Amino acid sequence: QYVLAIETSCDETAVAIIKNERELVANVVASQIESHKRFGGVVPEIASRHHIEQITLTLEEALTESDIELDRIDAIAVTEGPGLVGALLVGVNAAKALAFAKQKPLVGVHHIAGHIYANRLEEEFEFPLLSLVVSGGHTELILMKEHGSFEVIGETRDDAAGEAYDKVARTLKLPYPGGPHIDKLAEEGEVNIEFPRAWLEDGSYDFSFSGLKSAVINKLHNAKQKGEIVNSEDVAASFQESVVDVLSTKAYHAAKEYEVKQIIVAGGVAANQGLRSALHQKFDEEDIDLLIPPLHLCTDNAAMIAAAGAVAFNQGHRSGYDLNANPALSLERYGRRRQ
Ligand code: ATP
Ligand code: FE
Ligand code: MG
């Protein structure tokens, strides 16, 4: 069984094909990062235009890479939300056109469900599992008791982890997206600045990163005014230590409380070396299996949408030709719709 998937929620035009739910056959990602760099972030109008230019080429490239005819595809999956509405619409309309022209079933997929299911291309899921979602727009702890069921047990009250990385990077005058640059700097720096950690109320699995972000910005600003020199490597290392400490500690406590078999990391920040090693330190000694996707499946791609879409398809979920882009689609509601 082959599932073809399209992902255009943000600044990557991506098409992938997988076989039998877990086997990657083709994975093409056309990134627009270069076009957005000079603006320091994603410009929605530019993103939509690029998607329109790239979608057909990306689709053809995926089919060529897989050596599979469109007729042999069993279902078309597509990211329906959340994301930028104009960007999502390009993917949704392309998927609908394909599904209609080839008379194939259509399956709408939640982008974050996709980030989570990226892990299943590497290793089979064992429930209950806990997913730590850390991306450009989301920071959440999600409990899954079975396929397609998502319970948000904690989420950020302000900035997402990736967003905090990108904003701090901007203050350090690093290129967009800043996460990987801070990660690299942090490796060369020392943790010698005391930055806040937002633990919030006792037992809460929520997150907050805006206080930390402001503390870093203030520190740099004050140093500049006083003419002091601060070492960017040390700022990066100290900032990263704060983020990673809170993420890994909360994930650890939640994994224990919910007695999960697996802890799964998802989203772009899963590429972070500091986070990866902190999680290994916490979970390697435990009877909990730690899954972290390989780097090319951490940031946006369509293989993850195919992985989530194939499971939804095999559970009987279908979308109609009235499928629409939903920029604020909730993960819990998306899961309930499938039950
Ligand atoms: P969402 O998935 O929430 O809709 P998104 O799709 O924009 O948001 P992703 O593509 O999953 O987000 O991840 C991009 C984010 O990951 C950016 O904020 C980027 O800085 C961050 N990121 C990527 N690599 C690293 C890294 N090595 N360390 C820290 N952050 C990273
Ligand atoms: Fe994403
Ligand atoms: Mg992205």
TrEMBL record:
Binds 1 Fe(2+) ion per subunit. Its main location: cytoplasm. Substrate binds at residues 133-137, 166, 179, 183, 272. Coiled coil: none annotated. Fe cation binds at residues 111, 115, 300. InterPro entries: ATPase_NBD, Gcp-like_dom, KAE1/TsaD, TsaD. Its EC number is 2.3.1.234. One of its GO terms (molecular function) is tRNA N(6)-L-threonylcarbamoyladenine synthase activity. It is an enzyme of class 2 (transferase). Keywords: Acyltransferase, Cytoplasm, Iron, Metal-binding, Transferase, tRNA processing. The keyword Metal-binding applies. Its cofactor is Fe(2+). It comes from the Bacteria. It catalyses: L-threonylcarbamoyladenylate + adenosine(37) in tRNA = N(6)-L-threonylcarbamoyladenosine(37) in tRNA + AMP + H(+). It is found in: Cytoplasm. The keyword Transferase applies. Residues 23-306 form the Gcp-like domain. Belongs to the KAE1 / TsaD family. Required for the formation of a threonylcarbamoyl group on adenosine at position 37 (t(6)A37) in tRNAs that read codons beginning with adenine. Is involved in the transfer of the threonylcarbamoyl moiety of threonylcarbamoyl-AMP (TC-AMP) to the N6 group of A37, together with TsaE and TsaB. TsaD likely plays a direct catalytic role in this reaction. This is tRNA N6-adenosine threonylcarbamoyltransferase. The gene is tsaD.
